């Protein structure tokens, strides 16, 4: 199906509509509920009201990835300072791909040292779209970013990260390090709210998708045309796949907490056997209006960037016209947008 021009997914977003700090309470954000079966919108004052829309037998699926402190300040041996965002390990041991500010003077062979501890050095070994850095000593690991780096908050916050971000830009169920951005729909849940969810007879299960920097990147015409996005690693355990497959078989609702979770669910769902496959894999899946979404029945999400892959995914899930109408309503009624913003619940099945 033809989805039109990317500009059709644009909208004017006033600066004051962008949430740059979290709500006082995690579950204190507002909630906009969209029933895609009839296009009806309902506004709820607090996210906790989501309990009204859940029922016994539902399966709530969340992304338990943890945001790593991969924003690191480095200095050359001559003292020049560079800010680096470490992306993914390269194919060679102990090498990392990184986005580095003011990188024109960084030639292969340049040595940089981490500013915070001074314990680690990074040697430039390659230059393409990103800089490739070889870490020393050779036992450098992901966990070491926790001692030398900061939380890489989204660029549209237009501020420095704080200690509050170290807590609030993580879900309460975050576990495995590896992401450079949070699965933000999950930021609204508290331990107390999750306990109430379980008391309703709703199962809560977790998968892992390591969110990459591409989630913030502007879509290119080539990506839009070829329907290929940045690659992201995901993992689904055999126990979770079994739970999801049983829910499918019994006709119970599967509810995705966030677009990153939905991307993993769709990538792992075999439409032929109508079942979820367990294991580790990666995906470049780019869901757009017209693409069938078969893995789940409902979606919890935040309000996304104009012309973004995440907005197109939400439009694929609930319908372009219905979603864009909901966004216009949200803007008129003062909803907060983006990572620290308010939430939406999209119901494809009541």
UniProtKB/TrEMBL annotation:
UniProt-listed Gene3D superfamilies: QueA-like
Catalytic activity: 7-aminomethyl-7-carbaguanosine(34) in tRNA + S-adenosyl-L-methionine = epoxyqueuosine(34) in tRNA + adenine + L-methionine + 2 H(+)
InterPro entries, sorted: Galectin_CRD, QueA, QueA_dom1, QueA_dom2, QueA_sf
Main location: cytoplasm
TM spans (from-to): none
Pathway: tRNA modification; tRNA-queuosine biosynthesis
Stated name of the protein: S-adenosylmethionine:tRNA ribosyltransferase-isomerase
Lineage: Bacteria, Pseudomonadati, Spirochaetota, Spirochaetia, Leptospirales
Gene responsible for this protein: queA
């Amino acid at each position: 199906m033809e989805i039109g021009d990317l500009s059709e997914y644009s909208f004017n977003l006033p600066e004051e509509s962008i949430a740059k700090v979290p709500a006082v309470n995690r579950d204190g954000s507002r909630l906009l509920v969209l029933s895609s079966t009839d296009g009806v919108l309902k506004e709820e004052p607090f996210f906790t009201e989501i309990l009204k829309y859940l029922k016994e037998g539902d399966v709530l699926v969340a992304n338990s990835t943890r945001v790593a402190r991969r924003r690191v300040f480095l200095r050359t041996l001559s003292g020049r300072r560079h800010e680096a965002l470490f992306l993914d390990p390269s194919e060679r041991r102990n090498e990392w791909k990184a986005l580095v500010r003011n990188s024109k003077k960084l030639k292969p062979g340049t040595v940089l040292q981490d500013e915070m501890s001074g314990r680690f050095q990074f040697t430039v070994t390659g230059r393409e779209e990103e800089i490739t850095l070889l870490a020393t000593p050779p036992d450098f690991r992901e966990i070491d970013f926790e001692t030398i780096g900061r939380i890489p908050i989204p660029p549209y916050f237009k501020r420095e990260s704080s200690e509050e971000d170290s807590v609030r830009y993580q879900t309460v169920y975050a576990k495995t390090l590896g992401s450079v951005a949070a699965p933000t729909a999950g930021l609204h849940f508290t331990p107390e709210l999750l306990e109430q969810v379980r008391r309703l007879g709703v199962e809560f299960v977790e998968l892992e998708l390591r969110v990459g920097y591409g989630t913030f990147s502007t879509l290119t015409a080539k990506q839009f045309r070829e329907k290929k996005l940045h690659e992201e690693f995901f993992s689904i355990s055999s126990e979770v796949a079994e739970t999801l497959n049983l829910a499918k078989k019994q006709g119970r609702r599967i509810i995705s907490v966030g677009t990153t979770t939905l991307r993993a669910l769709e990538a792992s769902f075999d439409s032929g056997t109508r079942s979820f496959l367990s294991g580790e894999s990666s995906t470049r899946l780019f869901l757009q209006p017209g693409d069938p979404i078969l893995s789940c029945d409902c979606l919890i999400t935040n309000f996304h960037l104009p012309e973004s892959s995440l907005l197109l995914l939400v439009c694929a899930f609930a319908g372009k016209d219905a979603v864009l109408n909901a966004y216009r309503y949200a803007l008129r009624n003062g909803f907060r947008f983006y990572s620290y913003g308010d939430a939406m619940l999209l119901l494809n099945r009541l």
